[in-house]
Amino acid sequence: MKNVKNAFMAMTAILFIGLVFSACNKEEDPTPPVPGFDYSPTDVIQWDNVTFTNTTTGGESYSWDFGDGSAASTDENPEHQYLEAGTFTVSLTATNEDGDKTTTMDVVVAAPNNNYVIDGTEYAIDTAFTYSSMGMTYWRMYGEIFPGADPAVPNLLKFYPNIGTGTLEGSYTYDHDTKPVGTFYYGFTAGYAGMQMDSTAVDIGTSATLVITKFATDIYEFKLDAAVLQFGYYDWGAGGVFVPSGYEPTYSVLYRGPVTPIIK
Question: pLDDT, tens digit, for every residue of 74-124?
Fold first, then answer.
């Protein structure tokens, strides 16, 4: 009987030691991180600032490769600006004391859809440039041919935001007459060389606002929503009086790209 008792106690001790050893092994099992991330905006346009949100579990340090040849980041939730359009493979490497793991995701960066819209029809904007005349600086854009204009001549969009001695970026309200600092005046000429279809901006039931945003050095966005154009012609024999035709279409503009920020 004594031998049976001793054997039982020995088996119990062995079992206990085994359980302790097993528990220790479980505690010491390596647990490398599980990397993951999201980004916003999800529809990325060239020059957007993209925010990457780290969803890694078990990570202690991080390394980001944005896929465009730029410097890596060790921030947990970095921001990055893509200066070119294309598809870029972003990789996140998460590390802890038990090792590291990497995950990747493709980010598609679209080129800007530079356009103006008249009465619901979209027309492309090809280029933008500055122009100074009579002490005023205009930001001009060449656009796709407007129906009825000379097919060989591009349209011309003309913006005059009065920035005074400040910076170009900002929000401007429409003012045709006195044009004080902080307001803008704009026009539109279909078939610029012929001047056969001119227009000016009018504020009919809307509060037209031009928002100019800076994205990078000499990269700006011009955005005009819910405006109205008044087509007609200028009677230069009468001193440049604008004679409206009665055609007053809705008008919007979106351009993002190179712009020279001249201060007047």
Answer: 999 999 999 999 999 999 999 999 999 999 999 999 999 999 998 888 988
- Smallest Cα–Cα separation from 177: which of 155, 162, 188? 162
| Tokens linked to 43 | 């529809």
Please enumerate in sequence order all residues whose Cβ is within 8 A of that of 184, keeping only pairs 6 or more positions apart, or say none: 159, 160, 161, 162, 172, 173, 174, 175, 210
How many domains is the chain partitioned into structurally? 2
Residue 51 in any domain: the answer is yes
Using CA atoms, how far apart are residues 189 and 12, in angstroms rounded to an integer?
Answer: 97
Residues 100 and 163 in one domain: no
Same domain, 82 and 122: no
Give the angle subtended at the CA of 81 by the CAs of 107 and 60, to the nearest 5°. 75
Provide the mean pLDDT of the chain. 82
Q: Judge if 201 and 245 occupy the same domain.
A: yes
CATH number of the domain at 45, please: 2.60.40.10
Starting from the edge strand earliest in sequence, which strands make up the sheet with 99-110, in order?
Answer: 44-45, 99-110, 86-96, 61-65
List the one residue out of 125, 123, 163, 124 whose CA is nearest residue 141.
125
| 25-75 residue pLDDT tens | 445 678 999 999 999 999 999 999 999 999 999 999 999 999 999 999 999
